[in-house]
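note to self — DONT lose this again. spent like an hour looking for the file last time. sequence + predicted structure for the chain T wanted, 196 res
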Amino acid sequence: MALAAPVAATACWRNGLHAVEAIAGSAPFRHLITPGGKRMSVAMTNCGPLGWISDRSGYRYGPVDPDTGERWPLMPAAFQQLARDAAEAAGYPGFAPDACLINRYTPGTRLSLHQDRDEGNYDHPIVSVSLGIPVVFLWGGAARADKARRVGLWHGDVVVWGGPARLRFHGVLPLADGEHAMTGPVRINLTFRKAG
């Protein structure tokens, strides 16, 4: 896992948040259902050629938003460049994401330890960008029972993992109450993957 300090100026993040608002205007945030029928606490949407979805049929990627019947919104060029630059800085040159999952956390929401196993192959890294109020990221091992390291993530932090660490378990603790000047009482996470 490579953890970078904030990699862009405030104006860049403000533009990124405006882009998230525009994406959510076309593909609104929603709480997906797990294959077991549980409602996820984190609200999600996607941009790019492929979007990650979950329902009673399972976890998967698809080109169409099941709620709107339309293709997912285009991934902004600035998002693509950010993901490429972060991956290259972490030792993964040539990363070309085709999926950006956008998670919206409100106080109390969490993401249980899990592996990212729904992509076409595991040769490509994962790039995760944190915006808004801070959160505690859980960086686990190869098995769910492995003790997870706790890492504080702040506005503008970028985490990249791949190679032997690509399938490590990870998640976030419940989001604490907070307020950020750019996002209010919310955390936004952008996760870039090569899924196709």
